Amino acid sequence: MSTESKFLPPVNDDVVWDAIIVGGGMVGAAAAIGLARNGFEVLLLERKAPHWSADEPLGVRVSALTRASENILRNLGAWEAICQQRCHAFRAMRVWDEFTTAEVTFNAADVGETDLGHVIENDLIQYALWQEFDACESLTVLLDQEITALKLPADGLSNSSLTLADGRKLNARMIVAADGGRSLVRQLAQIGLSTQDYDQCAVVGTVKTELSHQDCCWQRYTKDGPFAFLAMQDNYSSIAWYLPKEKCDWALSLDDQQFAAEVGKASDYRLGQVVEVGGRGAFPLVRQHANHYVKRGLALIGDAAHTIHPQAGQGVNLGLLDAAALVETLSRAKSEGRNFTSLSVLRQYERWRRGDNAIVQRSMEWFAWLYQDNPLKNGFRQTMLPLAERLKPGKNWLMEQALNGREALPEMARKYSL
């Protein structure tokens, strides 16, 4: 982002924004662009502007984007810039476990598609979205600010407001919380959570393997949890290695040679030896779901509303659908002359997204449960997965769901509008 006027530290306290979005990550940035392009005066709050460079090593945090997410990013203008940099399409996915000989392969060609999705660095997605800010005349960015208080219309005010650490007060018709799983805005709004700690961590990083990944994502279930290779360019793969919490520090403490050997073992050497190890990191696995997505003058999107088990890379995809659904809901209400901050309008967004997100959360947990080491479950997989491999209609339906999402997708996610 190059336009200095986009960053406006001396914000006028008297201004009432249509929307203040707290959090400029992938989901918050998408919502900001969508609202600004639909005529909303938007203020985006973020700690710092994103940085990404093709000269730097591959980032350790990536997402496997679906076709619906691709359409959203196309409509927001960011997709072409992403694809000109580091963006890798995967055309197949293979799933197996260490307890049985059963395997399932999903192939894009079976549903008439060229790919099943794209593996892209999170930093690149965010950076590409921020490059679109310059074209949004009604979008302003405020960096490096800390929020200390939140007031909503339910407190007797006509507008919502945020108080900053320096004492300034920002006023808006509504607040959008896109500030992640530990959302301060959600806490200040006193919206509770249902949570489940999986007692696991995800070790993530980048490796290069001896054998080609064949534009395929590989996922193996082990006694510790899933292990996955996500295909990237030049025969690199992003890994997601799920371990009990007590093994997390051990995995991070290994030197590169030891780490490469352990990754080889965890992956059953399907791609041969690991010949190069890049950066790595880890994060705890916790499912969260906000008890409510909205209050009058407030909406939660992305991880502020929900986090899921990341084994299928659905977190960002769900967040982008939240952003697109909120933009569509508010824009429709505004065009019809209705109060877009009212509970009746905001609950349309909540009904649209909350149930779908809950289904995906439970589906991810069901897959993790199914692949646990248990004689009955092992026998079930050994018997049923070969049958599922031969019954293409069932597999094809699953691929269609994963690619394009469920019913009632937001307009931005259904198609690319030139």
CATH level-four homologous superfamily name: FAD/NAD(P)-binding domain
**Low-confidence parts, pLDDT < 50 over ≥5 residues?**
1-5
Note the overall shape: globular
Distance between the termini: 23 Å
Number of helices: 12
**CATH first level:** Alpha Beta
CATH architecture annotation: 3-Layer(bba) Sandwich
Largest sheet: 8 strands, mixed
The CATH topology is FAD/NAD(P)-binding domain
Concise account of the structure shown:
This protein has one domain (4-413): 3-Layer(bba) Sandwich (FAD/NAD(P)-binding domain).
Structural account:
This protein has 418 residues and is α+β, with helices and mostly antiparallel strands. The chain has one domain (4-413): FAD/NAD(P)-binding domain (3-Layer(bba) Sandwich), CATH 3.50.50.60. Helices cover 34% and strands 29% of the residues. It contains 12 helices and 19 strands. Strands 1, 2, 8, 9, 10, 11, 17 and 18 form an 8-stranded mixed beta sheet that branches. Strands 6-5-13-14-15-12-16-19 form an 8-stranded mixed beta sheet, sandwiched between helices. It has a 3-stranded antiparallel beta sheet with strand order 3-7-4. Strand 14 (226-231) and strand 15 (236-244) form a beta hairpin. Helix 1 packs parallel to helix 4 and helix 1 (26-37) runs parallel beside helix 8 (315-335). The longest helix has 28 residues, at 343-370. The protein is globular, with a radius of gyration of 22 Å. The model is unreliable at 1-5 (pLDDT under 50). Pathway: Cofactor biosynthesis; ubiquinone biosynthesis. GO terms for molecular function: FAD binding; monooxygenase activity; oxidoreductase activity, acting on paired donors, with incorporation or reduction of molecular oxygen. Residues 18-335 form the FAD-binding domain. InterPro entries: FAD-bd, FAD/NAD-bd_sf, UbiH/COQ6, UbiH/COQ6_monooxygenase. Belongs to the UbiH/COQ6 family.
